Amino acid sequence: xxxxxxxxxxxxxxxxxxxxxxxxxxxxxxxxxxxxxxxxxxxxxxxxxxxxxxxxxxxxxxxxxxxxxxxxxxxxxxxxxxxxxxxxxxxxxxxxxxxxxxxxxxxxxxxxxxxxxxxxxxxxxxxxxxxxxxxxxxxxxxxxxxxxxxxxxxxxxxxxxxxxxxxxxxxxxxxxxxxxxxxxxxxxx
Length: 189
Prior knowledge:
- This protein has four helices and eleven strands.
- The chain is of the alpha+beta class.
- The longest helix is centred in the N-terminal third of the chain and has 25 residues, at about 20-45.
């Protein structure tokens, strides 16, 4: 009991803290909290994903690789190309290969085609490629902690283009692998 009273007496005998001292303490606390939040954000890498529909599935691709969403009504078929190669489209004077990604990842291709079709123009450095899509859903921010990599037990040929799956079951395509695969483009020289 004597010890408790001495603590109270010591607390009562303390001089009041000045306004400058309080401001300095609060600034230091704010600095520490700000550093903690910056570290937390950098640990959880976020990236934007363009989500789109293929058949009855939701797919996504990192937004940094999507140059634009393009609606086209005419494409030029190229004879002797694989069935996933739909042909080429003319985008402002630039000829770009158009592929049916549904055939590559093994989805049902019986969906109706219209005269106005949509594609995503993927781009990285000098490489460009268009992939046919059924519908655009939107852009969504994802964090690396919300995706599962290595979810595929056994890799098949079509799985080579899938990089991850999100917690909301969006299948993320590997844009770099798609863009760098020579068999997915028509080289017109």
